[in-house]
Amino acid sequence: MRDDQRGYASGIGWAALTVIAAAALGKPPTPSSSTAEVSSYFVDHQQAVAVGSTISAVSALLFLLFAVSLADRLSAGWPATVVRATAAVMAALAVLGGALQAALAQAAPHLDASAVSAVWTVVWPVFYLTPPLVLSLLLANVAFGVQGTTVPRWVGLSAGILAVLAFVAGVAGMITASTTALNLGFAGLVLTIIWVLATSIVLWRTAPSEMADKPALLAR
After folding, report:
1. Residues near 94 by Cβ (< 8 Å), separated by ≥ 6?
2. Contact yes or no for 79/10 (Cβ under 8 A)
3. How far is CA 60 from CA 52, 127, 149, 154, 155, in A?
4. Phi, psi at 33, each rounded to 5°
5. What is the DSSP letter of 2?
6. In the chain, which ranges are continuous DSSP H helix?
7. How far is Cα 100 from Cα 148, in angstroms, rounded to an integer?
8. Rounded to 10 degrees, what is the CA torsion of 176, 130, 137, 182?
9. Domain locations in the chain as residue ranges
10. Tens digit of pLDDT per residue, the chain (220 long)?
11. Is 151 helix (H, G, I), strand (E, B) or coil?
């Protein structure tokens, strides 16, 4: 298996692990939730939150590998560079946020409710709020970068649409914790999972073969 194929396989792995992580985490509290609700979530779902946060952090590294392989298929220049950079930022946020959330879940039974709620106000923007905004920048550059490449057009078109949705969801989450904003964020996550899964499969199937690369290597 070549490096690019490992990247596409990582995209499939990210999609699977993200579904598992989301199921484990369930419905987390929001910044507008009461102190009692936040504390109850972490105390009552201690192990599930710890497991879901850890899986999410690990899956972020798979997303980074996928994004690097995807960037290699884009046109040379700033779109590919921005895709790699934003993927690295997303991975860092997921690892940091996942570690903080898992640690909070483990410590919650030993803390009073106000302390749990205070820490949660730090974890929320790192793990849930900022990633959609960074993702919107990544997807927008995928949409620009597919032009003039062998990547199917629908990959870029759908990435552009998802970029708008992710940006709107991120901004809405910054303004309000309403049900509409949360539903937008959830819809964006589901569509992103589908997009990464479909893109990974298509790019795997259309990846240049090693035999096609050999003439270029021999000519050097």
Report:
1. 56, 57, 59, 60, 63, 127, 131
2. no
3. 12, 11, 26, 24, 21
4. -70, 150
5. -
6. 3-25, 35-44, 46-73, 78-107, 113-124, 130-145, 153-175, 179-206, 210-218
7. 42
8. -40
9. 3-206
10. 576 788 999 999 999 999 999 999 999 998 888 999 999 999 999 999 999 999 999 999 999 999 999 999 998 789 999 999 999 999 999 999 999 999 999 999 999 999 999 999 999 999 998 999 999 999 999 999 998 888 999 999 999 999 999 999 888 888 877 777 778 888 989 999 999 999 999 998 887 664 344 443 334 3
11. coil
- Could you tell me if 84 and 57 are in contact, meaning their C-beta atoms sit under 8 angstroms apart? no
Residue type, 58: V
What letter represents residue 20's amino acid?
I
For 22-57, write each residue's pLDDT tens digit: 999 999 998 888 999 999 999 999 999 999 999 999
- To which residue do tokens 């997807």 refer? 139
Contact between 130 and 171 (Cβ < 8 Å): no
Q: Which of 89, 88, 18, 27 is nearest to 56 (CA)?
A: 18
Q: Which amino acid is at 164?
A: V
CB 83 within 8 A of CB 149: no
Neighbours of 56 (CB within 10 A): 24
pTM of the shown model: 0.88
